[in-house]
Amino acid sequence: MHPALDSEVQAKAKVYQWRKHIWDWSRTALTIAALLAFYFSGISQLLASELAARLPQSLTVIVYFLIFFIGLWLLRLGFDYKSGYLIEQEYGFSTQGPGGWLIDQLKGLVVNLLILGGGVVFSYWVLLASPAWWWVWVGLGYVGLAVVLTNLFPVLVLPLFFKLKPLEDESLIERLRGVIARSRLKARGFYEMNMSSKTTKKSAMLAGLWNTKRVILGDTLLQENTPDETEVVTAHEVGHSHHLHLWQRFVVASLVIFVVLFLLNRIMVALFPAFAPPSRTLELALALLPLIVLGFIALNFAFSPLSKAFSRHLERQADRFALGATENREAFIQAMASLASRNYDDAYPHPLIKLFYYGHPPIGERLKAAERSNFR
Ligand SMILES: [Zn+2]
Q1: Do the domain assignments include residue 62?
Q2: How many Å lie between the centroid of ligand 1 and the Cα of residue 203?
Q3: Residue 173 lies in a domain
């Protein structure tokens, strides 16, 4: 173990992370069981045909989707409460009451209903309008939506949950000038977010696109970190901007989504010949939604080692940028070690956990890479 890490805290972090994994896996198992039961019990067919007999096509899709999605959300809520709230309370991370937590969940539900609902209506429209090539149109729709949502995220979605204000700490901005000079960001593109209203964990992110692009620092991070540590964390986020990582992520995510949709179409046609044109009807395709969602989840999971490995590659590049821009290896090591302790990050996860879930290199690896780098 790296000497900057606290072995006692790391032992606790391992238990914490395993408990979260186990609850998340239980929730996934329940979701899979529910999707299979919904389809194979015949309820999905019944619902689709009853709605199709009474409503126009677009409303049929919307009402089916609302019942399906809200039902799934309610079923998962107990697991979300345990993993996302009770365990967070137990470890002293959550600073919210149960009411505040539930309001956030409801806001999240509404945002998801709007975005996914729009996506599902569009998808069913092209399923019927372009039976053979629907997966190409859905893929293109996904890419377009991802670009728009990334642009709107920091100005429309994030403010629903947090307050954001431009960074005011002049001495910090002055320190960051050197880093900013090496980036494509403007000095005004730095914001503080009141993370402490919900959690004691600390983090920073690069969010937005074009006119909305900004580095967002949690107030938890600004309060706890030394100025040197904040500078190096900010430099990491600026590194993502400098290397155009967002666009690289778009390209890889788009490739994955097209392959997933292509395979999904093939699998559905092979398993359910009636899904193939010209016999496909709205009623039939809608009744199959639970299995389409299941296939989508399974294929995305199958591709996650690939997309996570690419994400870790970008994170290593941002780390190297941060070390080069600040030339302060000691601050980088301290910032990483305190992140691991504060957030109970497992610095040395099981290789399989890393393979499927780690979009960042484990902190143990980031510390080792910093030690090996040429920067002082
Ligand atoms: Zn990063």
Answers
A1: yes
A2: 10
A3: no
Domains held by the chain: number: 1
- Taking the centre of ligand 1 as the mean of its atom positions, its distance from the CA of residue 316, in whole angstroms, is 8
Dihedral sign of CA atoms 55, 56, 60, 63 in order: negative
Cα 115 to middle of ligand 1, angstroms: 26
Between CA 259 and CA 291 the distance in angstroms is 18
Domain range spanning residue 13? 7-163+241-372
| pTM over cut 0.85 | yes
Contacts of 242 (CB under 8 A, 6+ apart): 182, 183, 184, 321
Residue 224 inside a domain? The answer is: no
Per-residue tens of pLDDT for the chain, all 376 residues = 999 999 999 999 999 999 999 999 999 999 999 999 999 999 999 999 999 999 998 899 999 999 999 999 999 999 999 999 999 999 999 999 999 999 999 999 999 999 999 999 999 999 999 988 999 999 999 999 999 999 999 999 999 999 999 988 888 888 887 777 777 676 568 899 999 999 999 999 989 888 888 889 999 999 989 989 999 999 999 999 889 999 999 999 999 999 999 999 999 999 999 898 888 889 999 999 999 999 999 999 999 999 999 999 999 999 999 999 888 999 999 999 999 999 999 999 999 999 999 999 999 999 999 998 876 5
Please tell me the distance between residue 287's alpha carbon and the centre of ligand 1 in angstroms. 40
Least Cα distance to 206 among 232, 249, 181, 236 occurs for 236
